[in-house]
Amino acid sequence: MMTFSPNNNVVKLCLQGMGMEEAGKPEEASRLFLQAWSEAANDHEKFLSAHYVARYQDNASDRLKWLETALHFALKLDDDTVKSAFPALYSKIAQCYEDLNDPDKAKQNHELAALFQDKPADKGPFYHGTKADLQVGDLLTPGGDSNYKAELKMNHIYFTALVNAAGLAAALAKGDNPERVYVIEPTGSFENDPNVTDKKFPGNPTRSYRSHAPLNIVGEVTDWVRQTPEEVQKWRERLAGNKGEIIN
């Protein structure tokens, strides 16, 4: 399974393209995504860049070509973080076939989208970051206060398969206690976190999940990449400026 990195050059180009989108400069965004495609050197980079190039095609036929290119490389990867993108990817392909008056292929791709809309196949290990002082055998349960929106009670308990992502969550958690990252095991079914899946990037590159069922603490990690106070403050400011609603 590949580790998603914002330092990857193709990822950087895609981020710059998204910045141009937000600035209302679609032609510049399209140029950056095409540059990302031209520089893509492996299947993951080709999947990612083709996904963005597809957004800037003027007709359904060209859009379909790029979406099916993205799907081709995604299928070669056999990566759980990429499989999370399949429902949306197949749905977009189905829409293209609808626009091209091909109802049979549209139906086939809608069915594939539904097939992949299943629980994640990620086997972990999984982590939860917090400032709470807990012990092995304790259960983490839904219903806590959101770290990102005042007065919001969370209907799910969240976790990740990336220890550094859990460390960041611990740094952003409320309270003055030391940051803690616990190794956890879900006690029930879980799903991709819809707040981050298929948002800026296709799929679930941060391997973030949520569950209605408790998480059982089975250990603790003390070695992860800690954010500096300045980095934590930047994250807080970024989250405070986020206008999107939390999917709870």
Care to give the gist of this entry?
This protein is α+β, with helices and mostly antiparallel strands and 248 residues long.
Describe what you observe in this structure:
The structure is a single chain. With 248 residues, the protein is α+β, with helices and mostly antiparallel strands. The protein has two domains: 9-115, Tetratricopeptide repeat domain (Serine Threonine Protein Phosphatase 5, Tetratricopeptide repeat, Alpha Horseshoe), CATH 1.25.40; 126-240, Rifampin ADP-ribosyltransferase domain (ADP-ribosylation fold, Alpha-Beta Barrel). The protein is 45% helix and 12% strand. It is built from nine helices and seven strands; from the N terminus they run αααααααβββαββββα. It has helices at 9-22, 26-39, 43-54, 60-77, 80-83, 86-99, 103-115, 163-172, 229-240; strands at residues 126-130, 139-140, 157-160, 180-186, 191-192, 208-211, 215-221. The strands form two sheets. It has a four-stranded antiparallel β-sheet. A three-stranded antiparallel β-sheet has the order 3-6-5. Helix 2 (26-39) packs antiparallel against helix 3 (43-54), helix 4 runs antiparallel to helix 6 (86-99) and helix 6 (86-99) runs antiparallel to helix 7. The longest helix has 18 residues, at 60-77. The radius of gyration is 19 Å and the shape is globular. The mean pLDDT is 88.
